[in-house]
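[Meeting: bench + compute handoff]

Bench side (C.D.) handed over the final construct sequence. Compute side (W.E.) agreed to return the predicted structure before the next meeting so the bench team could plan truncations. Sequence as handed over:
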Amino acid sequence: MNRLFTLLAFCTFSLAAYAQNSHLLPSRPLVDSALAPFFHGVASGDPLADRIILWTRVTTEDPSVSVDWQIATDTAFTNVVNSGTVTTDTSKDNTVKVDATGLSAATWYYYRFTAYGRHSSTGRTRTAPSGNTDSLRFAIVACSNFQAGFFNVYQDIGTRNDIDAVLHLGDYYYEYKARGYGYTGDSTRLHDPGDHDAQTLADYRMRHSQYKLDPDLRLCHQQYPFITIWDDHETANDSYYSGAENHDPATEGDWFTRKDAGKKAYFEWMPIREVSANNDTTVRRTERWGDLIDFIMLDTRLEGRDSSLGTFIADTVSYVTDTNRQLLGRPQLQWFKGELSASTAKWRIIGNQVMIAPLTTFPGVRTIVNGDQWDGYPAERKRVLDYIMQNQINNVVFITGDIHTSWGNDVPHPDSIYDRTTGHGSVATEFVTTSITSPSNGLDIIPIGAVQNFNPHMKYVELLKRGYLLLDVNKQRVQGDWLHVNTVTDHNFTVTDDGYWMNMDGERFLRQAAGPLGPRPGNPPLLPYTILTAIKPVSNDLIVIGCYPNPAENEVAIQYYLSEPGKVTIQITDMGGKTVYTRQEQQTQYGLYSGKEYIDNLAAGSYIVSITAGGKTYSKQLVKAK
């Protein structure tokens, strides 16, 4: 969701053009040679009471590599509770995922990987509780666009020490080319590959790689387990089952091929557990945290969604009133109903990509502002809300991302007469987190009072700031605090707690909390980590992060890091040593680059691709497929 709406018609205001200043930011993602060969750090995810996913990626010139792993109760790894050896190769982009079992519930652990005689950085993680659970706290995030600024939100989460896990609700990265959507003017934070939107498996892998080289994101992954779902930008803007707004089959090929590539890269590069063995098509799942929470994570994007609608749509047009239109798809809807009914937890918290509370214009006109949200699928929303009410399911809380702004909503039933004062007519509540960096798309110039006048069920609205949601859950209430950073265009930032609302046990509406959430001691100490904000000396002038794709047909991209500016030479030779391709470029800055080489004219067969900079040469065998 990026071309969401400018809301020009929302309040019939005459809006001035929304201008962004250019910013010169001081650094690219830095590659720390001390992390070799684990430049992308470590991550963990999908914690259960007895197991957790551990993740890393090995940067290597070898076609396959053996990797040892350990998980222990102490940072010195004197009490290792599980360990093993796995092999990764180029078919997985040299990523490693281990489902570490045999763990104790509600326990903090430390883990690491070893390859080529070197350890990865140590990660810290924790398992979910089982049985009676009194209190849990989570950071809820979404929409991290590298080109839109620094990941200060990730740094703030990674340096606080009072949460149990991070829930990422999608748009972990953005598919746009360099200087595309969200770009602030900072030439050192450009997407890679840069000359086109990510659309192939190689492109999506490279984009994952670029984001996980960001030190703030690596820090956050190192300190906490993640529970993740995808949204649209992991493939293409405003995507649905059979297409996307930002996909042109005439120039970008078959949509299902592109979608499958994005999904495969996601499961390779994210610490997510496959729903079933080798299944990288499904992200919906339920994560149980004792008797306190069932997280029911939905896919409102790719699994069963019919074509998304546009903006400012009358709710009387046929494609809105069509009761056959689906957002979840029938199989997922049946699964969702079953999970709601089967849940015995105190709270059912629904991880969801797009806003479920209605957002309309003038009272009586009933114009849908954004058809990409549940508003574009009113019959599907009604089916869900009917089921909740007919089965007397209580304590249902939706958590949502996508919209790049902060909202605390009651979710009224479409057949009810909603009362803002009492909450009568509301079925559930919704906490919507703003973006990590992505811009507000013009929403910030709309008076909040006008929004709430048109939509009285929206109890808290903030339309300008970037940040995250702190969600604190106990058996009496769920409280959400909206924490906002004052800037994403500078690494020096402050954080404020700007709103705090809660859903009390047994109620279906939000009340304002008495105050912001306070300290929550009890976590073990944070692991040490240095945020890199300037050039850090590295032992090599050149580090090659990846060579994509291999085998290749028409082009190959080499992702590499320079510790200082200099001349870069890319050369391809045949197996007899004859040079068949060469190119030089002068890079004027240190940092991460990609060089794209077009090999259409080469005959099918094996070649050696070499890249030379600063007196160091990297070579890799390349197969030209046809």
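W.E. noted at the follow-up: The CA atoms of residues 83 and 314 lie 58 Å apart. C.D. will use this when planning the next construct.
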